Amino acid sequence: MFYDTAADNHGLKHNPFKALIVPRPIGWIGTRSKAGICNLAPYSFFNAVSDQPPVVMFASAGHKDSLANIEETGEFTCSLANWDLRDQMNLSSAPVLPEVDEFGLAGLTAAPSTMVKVPWVKESPAAFECRHWKTIEMPVQPGKIPYVVVFGQVVGVHIDDRFIKEGVVDTGAMRPLARLGYMDYGVITPETLFTLNRPTTGPDKRTAEVKPGPWDGVYR
């Protein structure tokens, strides 16, 4: 099948776009207003965009509380949502009033940050402390909700020591969640994680080969 995204003529029960761009990390964004009210919300359009310096982004459909707080304070956190916290993550997405603290609503602990004034989820296996870098308004289709993309530079990282083994992060053991399409989610487990060695090129840069077996620990 083929469909024109402007015409939205896919003929399916629901727009399939988000079911095709998968999996997507979940940005569990923590913010605090100038009045001191904390907010926590999961965003399905989230990812890292660079590591030197480390920068993350998330996209908000409309001007939500997270965006308003970041505009006020210039700071936010992003906690890793995993299998053990799936219900809390889902509950924190409820469209409650701005004065409601979703940390308390979801029964989570607001852990103090080191570099910013916004808390992160203490129960999370990892979290990022971020300072706002830039906000970009996306193109708007007639009759659709406008999206805004927020970029933040990561200034501090928290990692639960239980998930550091032999000098590397055991991602599979964390069991992080991923957003799929519709109301579907996925989870990374030790059984579904695999490694590949990056290819090396020949002297003439016209051929390439890959060392067989699991990752040998060398970045190429």
What form results from the Cα inertia axes?
globular
Order of helices and strands: HEEEEEHEHHEEEEEEHEEEE
Helix content: 10-25%
- Summing up helix and strand content along with how strands pair, one would put the structural category as mainly beta
Instruction: Give the tally of structural domains.
Output: 1
Q: How large a portion of the residues is in β-strands, by DSSP E?
A: 25-35%
The major beta sheet can be summarized as: 7 strands, antiparallel
Which strand order does the major sheet show?
Answer: 3-2-6-9-10-5-4
CATH superfamily: Electron Transport, Fmn-binding Protein, Chain A
Low-confidence segments, given as residue ranges, are none
Radius of gyration: 20 Å
User: If helices are DSSP runs of H or I spanning 4 or more residues, what is the number of helices?
Assistant: 5
The count of β-strands is 16
CATH topology: Pnp Oxidase, Chain A
Q: State mean pLDDT (0 to 100 scale).
A: 94
- Euclidean distance between termini CA atoms: 39 Å
